[in-house]
Amino acid sequence: MLKDHVPVPLTEQIVGSRNQIIEVRHALMNSEARRANSNLRTDDLNDHLAVVLKPDGTRSDLYPANLNALFAYTPVLLRALLRDHGLQESPTREKNLNRFMAHIGITFQIVPVSANEEESALMP
Fold first, then answer.
1. Cα–Cα distances in angstroms (integers) from residue 13 to residues 17, 20, 56, 85, 109, in the given order
2. Residue stretches of the chain with pLDDT short of 50
3. Which domain of life is it from (predicted)?
4. Is 2 exposed, middle or buried (0-12, 13-18, 19+ CB in 10 A)?
5. Are 99 and 88 spatial neighbours (Cβ–Cβ below 8 Å)?
6. What is the pTM of this model?
7. Does residue 55 fall inside a structural domain?
8. Does any domain span residue 30?
9. Which domain holds residue 57?
10. Which residues touch 45 (CB under 8 Å, ≥6 apart)?
11. Per-residue pLDDT at 13
């Protein structure tokens, strides 16, 4: 058999090379998704988000369809999404949103508004 004539290190190299090819494909897919997402602007909140894969190369079950869906996530769901993608969690929702948005290629950020600023903004 061929297996008897091929040294083990060579077969291990083949497996390693295949794994590297898979990793490069995932990196390329993520790069293309981030590029597509970088074109989204604040008036494109309902546009489809290109999927950035998790570190294991799979799509997160929690991945939002669009930015409006992401903005509707509860803090608990948002933290679970960050964990799915291997991202560090923050105590504030805005920082978690910004971290995930930056991870998927969104070029703008959410600016937290304090209650006092909201009240003064609403006052004539």
1. 6, 10, 21, 28, 43
2. 117-124
3. Eukaryota
4. exposed
5. yes
6. 0.80
7. yes
8. yes
9. 2-113
10. 66, 67, 68, 71
11. 85
